[in-house]
Write a structure and sequence with these properties.
A seven-stranded mixed beta sheet has the order 3-2-1-4-6-7-5, sandwiched between helices. It is 46% helix and 14% strand. The longest helix has 27 residues. It contains nine helices and seven strands. The chain has 230 residues and is of the alpha/beta class. The protein has one domain: Carbamate kinase (3-Layer(aba) Sandwich). The chain is globular, with a radius of gyration of 16 Å. The protein binds uridine 5'-triphosphate. The site of uridine 5'-triphosphate has 27 residues, from α1, α3, α4 and α6.
């Protein structure tokens, strides 16, 4: 059975408080799919707030990252519980792995493995691509509240154009322009994650996570309303 890895935005799972309804709807699709899944959940608003608090109290960027990672792990647990509740059994590993090799072991036993962040200095986008390499996944899906990759920030620039398809080189160039590398800042897709999908030639799909029809198509590698990188 082929594996698909999801980089699941924290803003979808926990926009301030857990969105259990959304996770349950997504879970239905994952449970019905003929794929296995590795999921890395982001930190969302709470991660950004806690990182800011650490900085205000004189904490280092390392400490801000550590605090943000804790939220990614909490969100991963929320997602795991909701998936298993929707399935009525443990389709997702009840243990949220801390490392990629632990995730690989659990993936031998469970259809779905959900985890959070790992080490400071990266984001869950990079974790998702590392997990995809580790699990030899067929493709990676970036599920967020943006419906694809744009030439510029669509919220700030109304002329920003959405890409249907992009090459790895085009994505790397775009992500490089937006890479500030501080906790809780927004990248198109983490620059390191872009370099990693390019080195392993992993097909990547950028989809609005709430457009469940597109999510379903992206899981199967079929055309959808988002952006495909290959
Ligand atoms: P996210 O992956 O959610 O970051 O991790 P993001 O891209 O800033 O947020 P979204 O996708 O828009 O919601 C939250 C923060 O946790 C730390 C980073 O500081 C990151 O910005 N983090 C996460 C790490 O340091 N290491 C990890 O492995 C994961």
């Amino acid at each position: 059975m082929a594996t698909v890895v999801l980089s699941l935005g924290g803003s979808l799972v926990n926009p301030g408080k857990p969105d259990r309804k959304y996770v349950a709807a997504l879970a239905k699709i994952l449970i019905a799919a003929r794929h296995k899944f590795g999921i890395v959940v982001g930190g969302g608003k709470n991660a950004r707030l806690v990182a800011e608090k650490v900085r205000l109290h004189g904490g280092s960027e390392y400490e801000a990252d550590e605090a943000a990672i804790a939220w990614t792990k909490k969100n991963a647990k929320i997602a795991m519980h909701e998936i298993n509740r929707a399935a009525g059994k443990d389709v997702a590993s009840p243990i949220v792995p801390e490392t990629f090799s632990e995730a690989r072991q659990l993936s031998n036993k469970y259809k779905i493995v959900v985890m959070g962040g790992t080490i400071p200095g990266i984001t869950t986008d990079t974790d998702a691509v590392l997990l995809a390499e580790c699990l030899k996944a067929e493709r990676v899906l970036n599920l967020s509240n943006v419906d694809g990759v744009y030439s510029d920030n669509p919220k700030k620039n109304p002329k920003a154009k959405k890409f249907g398809h992009m090459t790895y080189a085009q994505l790397i160039a775009l992500a490089g322009k937006n890479d500030l590398r501080t906790a809780g800042t927004h990248f198109v897709f983490d620059f390191v994650a872009c370099k990693l999908i390019a080195r392993s030639k992993i097909e990547a799909h950028f989809v609005d996570g709430r457009k469940l029809d597109s999510v379903k198509k992206a899981i199967e590698g079929k055309p959808h309303t988002g952006t495909v990188i290959r």
